[in-house]
Design a protein that fits this description.
Number of helices: 7
Shape: elongated
Strand content: 25-35%
Number of strands: 12
Helix content: 25-40%
Largest sheet: 6 strands, antiparallel
Order of helices and strands: EHEEEEEHHHEHHEEEEEH
Length: 357
C-alpha cells in the first residue's frame, strides 16, 4: 500500500488550510462578537407592550408607548453560543377613558428592574397615576388588574427573543439547541448562574485551544490576563475595588468588602472568596469564585498597579485556576469571567467614578 503524499515544508496542505474569506464572514459566529441591544430593546418594548388596548369595567385603556428606558442590554456571541445581558428601567405610558362621561386620565407603568438575573420570573411593576382623583384611581386599578398581566407576557417574550440573539432576530445556533434543552432560564452570564450543557470531549477541547491568546479562548491554561487603563491614581482604583460602599455603588448590588485581608462578597454573594494580601495602590491578592462553580473550587486573582506618570494608571489582572466548566457543566466560564471583569467591574468603575480612559 502506497503511503499518502505529505505536504512539503512551507507549502501547507489544502486538506487542512482554510482560505481566508474575502467577505470577512464570521462563520457560525465562531469569533467573539458583541452587539448593543439597547435600541432594539426600546423598539421591542414599544411593539410588545407599548400598544396594548382593552376595555374593562366601563373604561377604555391603552398604552401610549415607551416614555422612558434606561440601563443596558447587549448580546455576545462566540463559537455559536449566545450570551445576553440586560438591566433595564422601563416606563410605559397609558391613557384611560371613562366611557360614562368621557374623561381621560393618564399615567405610567413602571418596571424598575428588568434584568437577566431575574429572567423567567415575575418582574416588579407599579402603576403610577398622574392624578389622585376617583377617575385616576379607577383607571389605575383596572390597569393593575388587567394590563399588568398582559405586559408581563410581553416582557417575557422580550426576554426569550433576546436570549435567542435579539437584534436582527438571528436566533440560537441550531447545533447548540440540544445543549440548551431542558435547562433552566439563563441568568446574567457575567456574574450569575449558568445553564447546564453537554460536556465536550477532550478532542473537541483540544481543537478549540489557542496558544496565541490566553483568554477567553484558552481551555488549557485556565488563566485570564487583563490590562486596563484608568485616568486616576492607583489608590483610586484600589478604593473602588476594596471599599464596600464603593463596590455597592458601581455594582448596584449588595457587597461585603473591606480594605484588609479577610472574607469578601460581591454582586449579592454571586462572587465571594477571601482577600489574602492587600497593599493599597500596589497589590491585591484574593481567592475568588463564582457561586455556581463546583463546590470548593477557587481561582486566584492577583491585581497589580502601574503608574508611569501621575494620573495615568494601568491595572494588571492575572486570574489562575479558572475552571473549565461550572457546576452545571456549562463551558463558557472563561468567557463569562473575563467579560464580567471588563464590563461589570472595570467599565462600571470608569463610568461611575469618572476614571474613563
Amino acid at each position: 500500500r502506497q503511503a499518502p503524499k505529505m505536504a512539503k515544508i512551507g507549502e501547507g496542505d489544502g486538506r487542512w488550510i482554510v482560505a481566508d474569506r474575502e467577505d470577512g464572514t464570521n462563520v457560525n459566529s465562531w469569533h467573539w462578537q458583541e452587539k448593543d441591544a439597547f435600541e432594539w430593546s426600546r423598539e421591542r418594548f414599544a411593539d410588545l407592550i407599548g400598544a396594548i388596548e382593552f376595555e374593562d369595567g366601563g373604561v377604555r385603556c391603552k398604552c401610549t408607548g415607551v416614555t422612558a428606558l434606561t440601563g443596558e442590554a447587549y448580546v455576545n456571541r462566540r463559537k455559536g453560543k449566545i450570551i445576553c445581558g440586560y438591566e433595564l428601567d422601563l416606563k410605559i405610558g397609558y391613557e384611560g377613558t371613562i366611557l360614562d362621561g368621557g374623561k381621560t386620565v393618564t399615567g405610567n407603568v413602571h418596571f424598575p428592574y428588568i434584568a437577566d438575573e431575574n429572567a423567567g420570573e415575575e418582574h416588579e411593576a407599579k402603576v403610577l397615576a398622574a392624578g389622585e382623583g376617583p377617575d385616576d384611581r379607577k383607571v389605575k386599578e383596572i390597569m393593575r388588574l388587567v394590563a399588568l398581566p398582559k405586559m408581563a407576557e410581553g416582557v417575557a417574550k422580550f426576554e426569550k427573543e433576546l436570549a435567542k440573539g435579539g437584534p436582527g432576530g438571528e436566533g440560537a445556533d441550531p447545533n447548540e439547541a440540544k445543549n440548551a434543552s431542558g435547562s433552566k432560564p439563563s441568568a446574567r452570564e457575567d456574574f450569575r448562574d449558568k445553564k447546564p450543557g453537554d460536556v465536550q470531549s477532550n478532542a473537541e477541547k483540544e481543537r478549540e485551544s489557542r496558544t496565541d491568546k490566553t483568554a477567553p479562548l484558552s481551555q488549557k491554561s485556565h488563566t485570564i490576563r487583563i490590562t486596563e487603563r484608568f485616568y486616576c491614581r492607583p489608590r483610586d482604583v484600589c478604593d473602588a475595588l476594596m471599599d464596600g460602599q464603593r463596590v455597592m455603588h458601581f455594582s448596584r448590588s449588595p457587597a461585603t468588602v473591606r480594605p484588609e485581608p479577610g472574607p469578601f462578597a460581591m454582586f449579592d454573594g454571586n462572587i465571594h472568596g477571601e482577600t489574602l494580601e492587600y497593599v493599597p495602590g500596589e497589590k491585591i491578592v484574593q481567592n475568588w469564585r463564582f457561586r455556581n462553580w463546583k463546590e470548593g473550587h477557587f481561582s486566584k486573582v492577583t491585581i497589580t498597579f502601574r503608574e508611569p506618570e501621575p494620573g495615568n494608571c494601568f491595572v494588571d489582572l492575572v486570574q489562575t485556576n479558572v475552571p473549565e466548566t461550572d457546576a452545571f457543566d456549562n463551558e463558557t466560564v472563561m468567557d463569562t469571567t473575563e467579560v464580567g471583569w471588563k464590563q461589570q467591574i472595570f467599565e462600571r468603575i470608569r463610568q461611575v467614578f469618572g476614571y474613563g480612559a
